[in-house]
Amino acid sequence: MTTNKLTENKAKANPRTSKLSDERLQAALVAHAEQITATPLTAIFEAQAARLAALAVAAPRLYCDFSKLKVDALALELLEALACAADLDGWKSKLLSGAIVNPSEARAATHIAERGSGAADDVAQAKAGQGLMRGLVERVRTSDVRHIIHIGIGGSALGPALLLDALGNGGDGPMCHVVANIDGVALERVFALCDPLTTMLVLVSKSFTTVEMLTNASSALDWLAAAGVADPRARCIAVTAAPARASAFGIAEDAILPFAESVGGRYSLWSSVGLPLALRCGWAVFAALLDGAAAMDAHFRDAPFGENAPALAGAFDVWAARYLNVPTRAVFAYDQRLALLPAYLQQLEMESNGKRVTRDGAPLEGASAAVTWGGTGTDAQHAVFQLLHQGTAAVATEFVAVIAAGDALAATHHRQLLGNCFAQGAALMKGRSFEAALALSGGNAALAAAKTFPGDRASATILLDQLDAAGLGALLAFYEHRTFVVATLMGINPFDQWGVELGKEMAGQVETGGGFDASTMALMARAGL
Q: How many CB atoms lie within 10 A of CB 190?
C-alpha cells in the first residue's frame, strides 16, 4: 500500500496525536470510538474516496481488505499513536532478534528462528534440528511405513492437523493421522484406518510428560504389540524439548527430534512438530512453508505501520475489542482446505491473549483478546450467519478466501464460493431498510420487520493468491504476528499460558479423589471415579 490521501490527512486531523499522554490518548480513542460507532459504514465510505486504497494492504502471498471495518483516518492515527506508546517497534525488535519477550518465564520466543530470524545461536540450533528432521523424513519416506499416527495435544496437534488438512491431499508419502483427545474413541477410529505392521507412531510433547500423549501412546504401543510387532518402541519417533525423557521412555536416539524449550506449543508447527507434513509431502513442501513464513517475517519487520498487514490487523483487533466493545471475532474460511483454521486460531489467539494481567502483573485495564470462533463457508452461511446479519450480538467478522481454486471441477464451484464470500461482507455492511423490506412483503409490517437487516456490520477479508505451502506459511505467520501486535498494544505477555495449568493440576487430583467441592465430588461418584 502506498501513501494516499486518506493517510496523508491523518496529520491534518490531529497533528499532535503522537504526543498525547497515555491518559489523553486513551480518552481520545474512547471518544472517537463513540463517534465512529454512531456513523454508518456506508456514510464513511461515501465521505472517503481514498478509503479502499488506504485500507487495502498487500503483503507476501496475501491481500488484506480492511475497508469495511469501522475505522477512518483519525482512528488510524490514534492506533498508530497507541502502537508508539506501547513501543511496538521495540517489542517487535526484541521478538525478531531473539531477546526476552516472555518475562514470566524469562526467555525469548524462538519459533521465528525456525524461519531464519533471531539470535545467531537460536537460528543455528533450528538449522541443526531441521537437518536431523530432514534425514529422518527421507528414511521414513523410503521405508515400508504406510501410515503415521501423530499423537500430541494442543499446539502439538492443532498445527500439524491444519498443515495436513490444507496441503496433505496431494502428498505421496505415508498417510498421516493426528490424534489429540484422550477419549479412546479418537484413537480407535485411527486404528481402524491403519495396518499396525506398516504404521509408525510420532509422539509429540514439549515436556514428554503430557498425560494425554502418554496415555494415548501407551495404548498405541499395546495395539502394535497385539498385532505382532516385536519391538513397538522401535516404530516410534519422539518430538520433544526434553530428549532425555524420550530416551528414558525407550525411543532410539536417532528417532528423537528435539526442539527448543523457547518454542511455544501453539507456535511450534515450524519446528519438528510439523513433521507429519514433511513425511506426507516431502521436505521441499515443508521448506516452502518456512519460506512463506519468512517472507511475512520480513514484511512485519520492515513495513511501516500504515503498510504493515499484521500490525494493522492487530491494531484493528484491539480497536474492536477494547474501544468498540465487540467481544467476539468470527473467522470464516471460504476454502475447505482451511476448515481447521478457526480451531487453530482459537488456541493461537485465546491462549496467547486471554489474560487478565499485563506482562508486569498489573490488572488489565479494558478488554483482553476477543473470543475467537468461526467455521467454513458456505456451510456457515446456513448455520450461524443469521446471527451475524440480524442478531443482537456484536461480532467482528473476518473472511478468508483463496483466489486459485483447489479443485479440478467445473469453474462454477469456485466462482460461487468466492461470490458468496464477497457478497456476505457487502450484505453485512449494506443491510436492507424497513422500507425496502416492506415493498418485498406486500405491505405486511410484521413480515417486513423480519426481513429488515440493520447493516452497518463490519468485516475484513483476507485473500490468498493460492493455497500452496508458501501461501499457507505466510498466512499463519501473519496471524502469529497479528496476535503479537494485539498483545503488545494491550501490554500482555502472549507467550505464557498459566491459565492452562490449574485445570491440569486439578485433573491430576482426580486419582486421589480429594480437594474438590461437593458438586464435583458428587459428579465423580456418579461416574464411578
A: 19
